[in-house]
Amino acid sequence: MGESRDLLTPEQRSRNMSRIRGKNTKPELLVRRILHAKGYRYRLHGMAAGGKLPGNPDLVFAGRHKVIFVNGCFWHFHDCPAGMHAPAANAEFWDAKRRRTRERDAEQRERLAAAGWEVLTVWECGLKDRSALEARLTGFLDGGPGA
Fold it and tell me: Which InterPro entries does this one have (predicted)?
């Protein structure tokens, strides 16, 4: 399976990459469904009363001054197996791109914290245990610190 992906032409790879969503992903929709079912209300994609927030958080809880990012492990270079997977084709490009994403994420979290926002990052790999995810989400929103 991995071999056929590495044999794509640059045009095919570009077409495939252009179809990957940045908003309304399956992991994000799962988190939104869980929170909505529990009665939490939020704004989407970085919108707060004062305008756009740094990093465009996936969910914004303005009244609580809290935000949630739902990150894909590969794209945001998480330290889980999926995040540590390194593409064989164009490896230097992907390594630099993913490292820059990680750096940008850290910068955005710092900017949000400096503006008084608490931040929680939910990783795609953390969605498997739904009860643990629910506990983490509600714990954060009901007073616990971000992670």
Answer: DNA_mismatch_endonuc_vsr, Restrct_endonuc-II-like
Cα–Cα distance, 18 to 8 (Å, whole number): 14
Q: Closest Cα partner for 101 from 22, 26, 18?
A: 22
Q: What is the mean pLDDT of residues 128-133?
A: 93
Q: 126 falls in which pLDDT band (50, 70, 90)? A: confident
Query: How many CB atoms sit inside 10 A of residue 122's CB?
Result: 22
* CA angle 61–58–130, rounded 5-degree value: 90
Residue type, 90: N
Do residues 62 and 48 lie in contact, with contact meaning Cβ atoms separated by under 8 Å? yes
Terminal CA-CA length for the chain: 35
Tell me, what's the pLDDT at 25? 84
Between CA 58 and CA 71 the distance in angstroms is 9
> What's the CATH architecture for 22-141?
3-Layer(aba) Sandwich (3.40)
Predicted TM-score (pTM) of this structure? 0.78
Residue boundaries of the structural domains of the chain? 22-141
Note the helical H segments in 38-90. Answer: 81-84
